[in-house]
Amino acid sequence: MVHANLHNDVKTVLIIKLGYCETLVKEEGFAPSLGDVFRHTVLLHHYADYRVTWLTSASAAPLLRDNPFIDELLIFDESSETFLKNRHFTEVLCLEKAESVCRLVNVVTTDRHLGFGWHKNDVHAHPMAHRALAVANGKKHHHTIQELLYEMVGARWRGEDYILGYTPKVSETCDIGLNYKVGSKWPSKAWPMLHWQELEELCRFEGLSVSWQQGCTNLEEYMEWIAGCRLVVTCDSLGMHLGLAMKKKVIALFGPTPSEQIHMYNRGLILHNAAACPLAPCMQASCPDHMRCMTSILPTDVLNAIHRLIPAPVLVAS
Questions:
Q1: What is the pLDDT of residues 258-284, one digit of tens each?
Q2: Which of 246, 109, 233 lies closest to 177 in space, CA to CA?
Q3: Which residues make Cβ contacts (< 8 Å) with residue 230, sequence separation at least 6?
Q4: Model confidence pTM above 0.85
Q5: Whole-number Å distance between alpha carbons of 97 and 148
Q6: Tell me, what CATH number does 279's domain have?
Q7: Which of 63, 216, 261, 295 is the most exposed place for a label (fewest CB within 10 A)?
Q8: Same structural domain for residues 146 and 23?
Q9: Which residues pair with 124 in a beta bridge?
């Protein structure tokens, strides 16, 4: 979005979201979470009347590049403090909790500071961020991530969608995309490889064309691969959010993370086995019980879900 006539009365916002930690998880650190960066694009609807500057990490930049709601995309590095020092924004929304990032907030002048910052030698959460964080980490709740993010800025989420600036160059070339990989931060989210292989066999037996995840080291190639799939089977990962943003049919497999927080925009189904483990969702990166919550989701369960989302006749089968 380009504001042709930028006057002093134009509202401005600096959004700081790098993906170094998940906003709604009580953690601090630098474990990458690209999916957490992308799902924050729902907030851009709230800032549609603002001139938006977004500070992010180099790894997350392709997810935000060419976004029509972002006027200025900045990459976080050693020069960020110098570049932002004494710049003024109507609002600064910091969605990171690492000390080095929170300290950066203090060099920027603003009328209103939301999210997280650095105060009295510690990470400080704005009251609205504190409430959202408390709800997200409670024992049981049924608030979507979008609802909680909007609460952090004092607004109400009304079904706003993700916003992806990237324009795919390909059309759909296969029926089923197997988004089998998960990030290094949550290896417990993974579905067993034997299950993926069995699902491929079941799909091919029924005449469905199948493609295994591509672009694992290149985000643009990854987005092109998702664009080429009619339906994406995925764990709780970036691919799930991108598939929804591209308005694909999505089947999401959940175990250690809470599925209630995910809004599927009427584009897909969530599969989990709540009876498989009494601790699920445990929010643990490793599992002493061989990831029973994930292994208990069977390939036939996924195939049945595919039948619900892709009725015969098949349109893209090879």
A1: 888 899 999 999 999 877 777 778 777
A2: 233
A3: 172, 174, 175, 176, 177, 248, 249, 310, 315, 316
A4: yes
A5: 16
A6: 3.40.50.2000
A7: 216
A8: yes
A9: 117
